[in-house]
Amino acid sequence: MLLERWVKHEDSSRVTSDRSPFQPLGGGCMCERVRFEIAEPLLGALYCHCKRCQRRTGSAFSVTAATAPGSFKIVQGADLVGSWRPPDGWEKFFCTECGSQLYTTDPEQPERLSVRMGALDADPGIRPSAHQFTDYAAAWEPIPDDGLPRFPERLPGAMRPPQSEV
Q1: Exposure class string for 70-104: b at 16+ Cβ within 10 A, else e
Q2: Which fold does the domain 21-150 belong to in CATH?
């Protein structure tokens, strides 16, 4: 069941994909002037096929992972982080120097933050567990038959990781 894949891990010794205790995750932008750290295991991840993600990434989808509230911190280059807030969505944060997409937050609850998995330095120990906004998937890139659940619009609230909006 999808919910079982996205159970919040309260124990910071959670085992990652290489079977070692969780270590903080690092990440950053292409020019390396913005760096961030995530101090707790990620809560869950998914593929998003909406048009906004397609245009933001220049690809068929984006992969985003929910962070535990308070676990994400910019450790270098905070002055280079810019943002764009669409009228009906989460605020998107990026490096103003190189344009790398970094993370997104709920404008009503900024502690609800999801990181762009492509910005991570290492294997986070989780894998995407669903596809959302499949009704808008790029015609030129069919969604793979990977066995993950598909949702024509946003992932239903009851199926999201606790405290997230991936």
Answers
A1: ebbebeebeebbeeeeeeeebebbbbbbeebbbbb
A2: glutathione-dependent formaldehyde- activating enzyme (gfa) (3.90.1590)
